Each structure stands twice: as C-alpha cells, then as structure tokens.
Amino acid sequence: MQSRLLKIIEEAERGRPMTVEEMTDIFATDDEDIRRTLFEVADRVRHKSVGDAVYLRALVEFSNHCRNNCSYCGIRPGNRQVKRYRMEPEEIVEALAVAHRLNIGTAVLQSGEDLWYDTGKIVWMIREIKERYGMAVTLSLGERSYEDYQAFREAGADRYLLRHETSDPELYAGLHPGMTLQHRLCCLRQLKELGYQTGSGNMVGLPGQTCLSLAHDVAFIRDMGLEMAGIGPFIPAEDTPLSNAECGTLDVVLREVALLRLNSPLLMIPATTAVATLDSQGRQQALQCGANILMPNFTPLRYRERYRLYAGKACSNESFEQCIGSMFGMLSSIGRSVGKGPGHSLKGSGVYI
Ligand code: SAH
Fold first, then answer.
1. Using a 6 Å cutoff on CB, does residue 108 contact ligand 1?
2. Is 163 in the pocket of ligand 1 (CB under 6 A)?
3. 113: Cβ below 6 Å to ligand 1?
4. Measured in Å, how far apart are the chain's first and last C-alpha atoms?
5. Which of 310, 313, 316 has most ligand 1 atoms within 8 Å of CB, for mutation?
6. Measured from the CB, is residue 234 less than 6 Å from ligand 1?
7. H helices, E strands: number in the chain
8. Which residues, 6 or more positions from 309, have their beta carbon under 8 angstroms from its beta carbon?
9. What share of the chain is helix, strand, coil (3-state, %, to 5)?
C-alpha cells in the first residue's frame, strides 16, 4: 500500500491526474511518510506552477442578512441571537480605500444572500471600486439570477466565489433546507460561461462526510476547470443545529489542499480564515502544502463580530494593520513574497512559471 501511494504521488507530480479511488486512499491513510511526501510534493508543484508570490485579497463582509438557513452557518436566519447589519454601498466602497493604499490588488465583497442589495446597488459598487481604486473585483454573494451574474460581469466584476460546500448530493440536501446541489452547480456553470474566474470549494469534517466524498470534491474542482477553490474545516457555530458537532481537522484540510495542488496545478488556493481559527499555525501550514492566497479582513471592526459564521472566527477583533502586519511577518518567515498587481488566475494565460 505504502509504495503504491508513494508512486501515485510521484506520478501526480509529473502531471498524471489521480483517480477518485487513489485520492480516497490518500485521505484515509495513517502512514506518516505518505503524508509528509504528499505535502512536500504539493509544495514543489506550487512553487513550479504558480511561484512563490502570495496574493492578498481584501475581504469586506458587508451584510449578515441571509435568506438561506444552512444548518452549519452562524448567520442563518434561524439564529435569533445574531444582531443583523447592512453596510451602505458607499460605506463598503470606502472600507476598501485602506486596502488600496496598502497596494492590495483585489477586493472581495461577501455577504449572506441578501437581496436588499439589488442589481443596481451591486453594479454601482463594482463600478466605483474599479473607478476609484482600479482593483480586481471578486463577488461572493451566493446564488443570484443569471441576469444578475451577467449585469455584474458587464459592470466589470472579474471573479466569483461560490463554494459547492460538499459534492455529496444527499449530504448537501441535509445541510441546506430548500436548496439543491444541482442548482448550486448550475450557478457555477453560468458563472464560468459568463467568463468569471470562478471559485468553489468545500468544508472538511462535515458530520457524515467520508474520505470518498472528499475525493469527489477534489475531482469535481479539477474536472469543472475552476480557477479557485477555498477549503476550510467545518467549525460548529453557537445557536445552530450543529453547535455540538465535531470540528474538521487541520490534517484533513491540508491533505485536501495538497491534493488540489497536485491535481489542478494552476488553481488559486487561499489559506482560509477557518484554517487560522482552528490552529494558529494553520494558514502558514496551508501555504506550505499548496496554498498561494491570503484574504485579510477589511470589514470595519464595528461589524466584524456580527459576521460570525462559526465560533472563535480568527481576526475578529484585530485591526487591519495588525492583521496585515502579522501576515507580512509570517510570509517572510517562510520565504514567500507578497504578490503585486491583481493576481489573476494564470489559467489560459500561457504563463507557466
Ligand atoms: N452567502 C455566500 C457566502 C457564504 S459565507 C454564499 O452562499 O456563497 C462563506 C463560506 O463560509 C460558506 O461558503 C461556507 O463554506 C463557510 N462557512 C459557513 N459556516 C461555516 C462553519 N460553521 N464552519 C466553517 N465554514 C463555514
């Protein structure tokens, strides 16, 4: 078994995609050598394919109103303990001024699914961000109509993040009342078709999730030809149906990050906030086994506490300067540079570092 898995990892380094069965075995193994080799090879492939630069994305979490009642999520409407907020469009654009001054090339606008922000408001923000700061714009607003996605794209939005959460349709249905995996995937296909650099991703350690299902997540991201994928541990949120469930583990998150890097060499992979919440070294470790993106939080401090997707969310009360300062320090300690410019996906660009 050991030599078989080592051989599979070596072949992946030379460009052979893995089968779902092979990836399932790599998720399941408790062999320390395989785990270490997987991480080392993924770090090498990251270096060769996307280089040593780590791109920063300035995140503004602008509303915690949401129409979906996902059982894991701290801001689900069923959670009556949450104090709701909505930032005004001008306030959102203004919050990005400091990110622009710090030379961050991408703005990420994220919220619950909140239709108070109609087509016109989102379009206005995209245009203002482009005009005032010239930043790339990533949206993460959940499921919207095709017409909305099209209008946002025409206004200049570059990228869209919509995690598939889990590629197992039954697990998906159980966690998302009234929603289907099929519709989620339909949105992802529309986004791709409209020319967005499209990101998806899943949680790790959801109750009932298996190694096979995680292997399908990796294959899904690869086979859809996505540009980005965010992977984070499931962390129980207070006052939700899953508040007493077990957390996902750092080890499994790192394995998935590494497998993604091996199977989709040019993918943009963030070292997520959830990984940092789980372990103070989590982000650094993710960057050392495949990840190449960080998403510092630029949500004004007075709202940050209320965008609590899960318990103990990292950076909830750190200022931008503190957050950025510690990221820069961490990057230089692991020999990585800060990426300049928008940090677009290299896929299709013909650039291969
Ligand atoms: N409404 C947007 C943004 C959702 S919040 C959308 O639907 O895309 C961003 C991500 O946080 C979600 O996609 C989910 O993967 C993650 N998340 C939510 N609750 C979580 C929890 N309890 N533990 C870990 N991650 C969580």
1. no
2. yes
3. yes
4. 34
5. 310
6. yes
7. 15, 8
8. 73, 74, 75, 237
9. 45, 15, 45
Ligand 1 centre to CA of 71 (Å) is 11
Element (H or E) spanning 325, and its range?
Answer: helix 320-333
Token readout for 299 is 């949500």
Report CA(219)–ligand 1 centroid distance (Å).
21
For ligand 1, say whether the CB of 230 is within 6 Å of any of its atoms.
no
User: Using a 6 Å cutoff on CB, does residue 282 contact ligand 1?
Assistant: no
pTM: 0.97
Matching residue, tokens 């940050």: 304
| Tens digit of each residue's pLDDT, the chain (353 residues) | 789 999 999 999 999 999 999 999 999 999 999 999 999 999 999 999 999 999 999 999 999 999 999 999 999 999 999 999 999 999 999 999 999 999 999 999 999 999 999 999 999 999 999 999 999 999 999 999 999 999 999 999 999 999 999 999 999 999 999 999 999 999 999 999 999 999 999 999 999 999 999 999 999 999 999 999 999 999 999 999 999 999 999 999 999 999 999 999 999 999 999 999 999 999 999 999 999 999 999 999 999 999 999 998 877 788 888 889 999 999 999 999 999 999 999 997 655 44
Residue with tokens 């306030």: 91
Q: What is the 3-state secondary structure (H, E, C) of 138-198?
A: EEECCCCCHHHHHHHHHCCCCEEECCCECCCHHHHHHHCCCCCHHHHHHHHHHHHHCCCEE
CA-closest candidate to residue 308, choices 142, 86, 81: 81
**Sequence spans of domains, the chain:** 18-338
Domain 18-338 architecture: Alpha-Beta Barrel (3.20)
User: Which residues, other chains included, contact 330 with Cβ-Cβ below 8 Å and sequence gap of 6+?
Assistant: 283, 284
